[in-house]
Amino acid sequence: MKKTTNEIRKSFLNFFKKKGHVVIPSSSLIPKNDSTLLFTNAGMNQFKEYFLDQKKIFHPRIVTAQNCLRTGGKHNDLDNVGYTKRHHTFFEMLGNFSFNDYFKEEAIKYAWELLTSKKWFNINPYKLWISVYEYDEETYKIWRNIIQVPAKNIIKIGDKKNSQYDSENFWQMGETGPCGPCTEIFYKYHSKKLDDHEDFFENKNENFIELWNIVFIEFNRISKTKILSLKNKSIDTGMGLERISAVLQNVHSNYKIDIFQNLIKKIYKFANVRNVNNISLKIIADHIRSCAFLIAENIIPSNEHRGYVLRRIIRRAIRHGNKIGIKNHFFYKLVPDLIEVMGDSAEILKGQENKIKEVIKKEEIQFCQTLEKGLKILNIEINKSENKKMSGETAFYLYDTLGFPIELTSDICREKNIDIDFKGYNIAKEKQKNKSIQKNKFYKNYNENINIHDTCKFEGYKKYKIKSLIKHIFIKNSSVQIIQKGQKGTIFLEKTSFYPESGGQIGDIGEIYYKKSRFIVKQTKKFGDTIGHFGEIISGVMIINKFVYAKIDQIYRKNVQLNHSATHLLHSALREILGKNVIQKGSLVSNTHLRFDFSFSDNINLLKIQKIENTVNTQIRKNTIIKIKNLTLEEAKKKNAIALFDHKYKSLVRVVFVKDFSIELCGGTHVKRTGDIGLFKIISQSNISSGIKRIEAVTGQKAIEYLHIQDKKIKDISAILKSNNSNIKEKIEKIIKKVTYLEIKISELQQKENLHQIKKLIKNVKYINKVKILINIFQNYDQKSLRSIIEQLKKELKIAIIIFINKNRDNFTIIIGITKNLTHYVTAAEIMDIFIQKTGGKGGGKSTIAEGGSINIEKLPNFLIDIQSWIDKKLKK
After folding, report:
1. Three-state DSSP string of 808-844
2. Which one has a higher pLDDT value, 177 or 130?
3. Long-range contacts made by residues 582-588, C-beta under 8 angstroms, separation at least 24?
4. 129-154 pLDDT per residue, tens
5. From CA 783, how far away is CA 795, in angstroms rounded?
6. Contact between residue 683 and residue 609 where contact means Cβ atoms under 8 Å apart
7. Does residue 207 contact residue 199 with C-beta atoms inside 8 Å?
8. Contact criterion met (CB below 8 Å) for 630 and 606
9. Which of 240, 391, 372 shows the shortest CA–CA distance to 319?
10. Where are the alpha helices (DSSP H) in 385-499?
11. pLDDT tens for residues 793-846?
12. What CA–CA distance (Å, rounded) separates 841 from 820?
């Protein structure tokens, strides 16, 4: 009886447990303290620090079944998923590790025993081939003399031409660092050339499947050509669970193993396909795994970083569902089936099933609304494309406007043999990025292109005014010695009391002065390790190497501090009310208000908003002292400090404490006590993208002013309605009911009027070659009704071209309707193009309907003459 994938995983772990290894769980898909990786992509990722001797390992022998994701950077398998037998986005890597314990001989013996022993995997040893590094004679002898593998089944692989240590069998972590030779174990499915080494190289990806890679970490790479022996030698191995399962279950494709087959059968029930080997079925089965495990790690679909990867995987799966005829929302329904088939590795999913389903469902609903429209536009562009190439501008439009990830557009184009102009796409993307940067600058004349390498000491936590030395002056991006009255520029000081824009907190404003010279600071920014004060000199001059006073605007700073401390309270309140899954995605702390972006997939109703406000205001009324401590990063983590730990921090960090309610890493400025905030009021809550919410709030005097404005609005509305505040709601409800009733009556009358118009219009129909032509001019007619009349007339007239002109006081609109059976000869879009050319108007549409308008009423008569002539010629052809 064949082993299930879950049983194979257990067998692997149990085997090494019996060999003295400690079984540890899979680490997170989000790498800890490694900014070089987007996702965990190999079993050894969590042990990097131990291989580098940066940390002492807690046990010399370890075995894991590691969750991995390869969808970005150097290892990106997304495009190959479904099209090959062995590529996946999510996969499990089985691995055994030795840290200065056993080495080559034992590692090889363990692997061979597990694979070939009848007690374990029981693979025929003659089906196994071995590759070794050409210059690793020790490993070759172990395979030949100890394991007794025939020489014909061992392949030596050397360095690439003129490139030492650059071989498929010399593994390295990076350009420098731990490295060493490796030996790989391949399984041979079948071939007539059983003894031919050429067959290995020619059919390596077909008849031969790499099962296991055993890396001997015995060197440290110093440069491209220089390596040194390591004092402590280690073993790092990796075997794909899906691959070994395919071998043990006697199938030639990973997608034939039990996990995928069970998922594919579930998807097949939704689909309108006959072939269970359909590529789309494989892609969907693969993608539900990666999506579920990512969401379980608190990744939410978004337009950046890891959230963008998740979004594009979900959308790719949904598009393939659409491709195989799945019309309803289906992807989220696969989550329970996934949990069922994944066995022991599904533990992280079980407690979060509802959350995973909701996140996927929301993204699915949102994307399905634009998928159909996007596919139509994409197919039109594909049909229009010349030389089988799509413009970069079109690809960017689909991404920027319709939310089509470029990878999805590329995927569809690949199926149609269409190439995308990626250079043009990147140019369009860069233009948009630059526009966004310009739009979002705090001060339009502020220059970020200053190139400066210096330091500036910030002393503004306790001092509002200090004496300092001018070290540099820049006008635009040019260094100068002096700045004079009326000139704008950036001044760099030796030390400053001005807080630079950082961590969401805007920079300080104020003045730099000495005697009669005054420089008004309008913005403060970081430039590497130094701080720039941007502004304008209103009197005297400023000269480098002169001492000046730097004084911040204290009222401005205090208002910023109110909002910054309130932001910390808000963050903790959100996690308390909405759950620990809330993750900060951005913030703005200004002198007028605060803005906080965070991940949360559900709706936030008024009751929850009020609970959040109450929680924050309760903390304010407690008047708690806000304490600030400098701790090591490890100490901060032990205190459960909130931080973006995938960001880089120094070894010593600044931690802001509001007792146990809020503990957060922060470099910003804060009030002394929570009571200083006075009052906290949320003024808006919105969705800024899928799964990302934004809350804006005000504090202190601004909060009181906001409440006063709201109170005045209610009083003004009461006066208009001639009611008092107590019954304003009932009065508005009565008015709404009355308006609704009147709208229904108007609609009924309009329908009667439309029917009357249709009867009159049919009498005015003309014929050209059996095609009914109807052109009519209306005066101030309801535009919605005209659309309805056109659709009704198309049904009545069967074969017709209808053009309606609707004149208003100083402009006119046009609606063109054409029955579908005529679109091979003439389209509404073609007539609209002529309208635009003749009248200088604007408009657009499809083959059967188009709308537009123009202010050039005097050009209307000529257009009507020309268009009738054009239609006549077109139809007579």
Report:
1. CCCCEEEEEEECHHHCCCCCHHHHHHHHHHHHCCEEE
2. 130
3. 583/298, 583/300, 584/642, 584/644, 585/302, 585/692, 586/504, 587/503, 587/504, 588/504, 588/506
4. 999 999 999 999 999 999 999 988 99
5. 19
6. no
7. yes
8. no
9. 372
10. 392-402, 406-415, 422-440
11. 998 888 999 999 999 878 899 999 999 888 888 899 899 989 998 888 888 888
12. 25
- Pick from 200, 148, 157, 212: nearest CA to 181: 157
Cα 304 → chain centroid: 3
Please check the confidence at residue 448 and state whether its pLDDT lies above 70: no
**Closest by Cα among 291, 389, 325, 400 to 29:** 291
Q: What's the rounded Cα separation, in Å, for the pair 814 and 806?
A: 6
Q: How do strand 495-496 and strand 457-458 relate by DSSP bridges? A: parallel
Cα Rg of the chain (Å, integer): 35
Question: Does residue 282 surpass a pLDDT of 50?
Answer: yes
What's the pLDDT score for residue 505? 95
Higher pLDDT among residues 398 and 433, named by residue: 398
* Cα–Cα nearest to 421, from 386, 459, 456: 386
Q: Model pTM greater than 0.70?
A: no
For residues 459 and 500, the answer to whether their CB atoms sit within 8 Å is: no
**Would you give the DSSP letter of residue 19?**
T
d(C-alpha 307, C-alpha 359), whole Å: 12
Compute the C-alpha angle 426/431/434, nearest 5°: 120
What pLDDT sits at residue 440?
Answer: 44
d(CA 630, CA 640): 15
Q: What does the pLDDT average to over 458-484?
A: 94
**SS3 at position 59:** coil
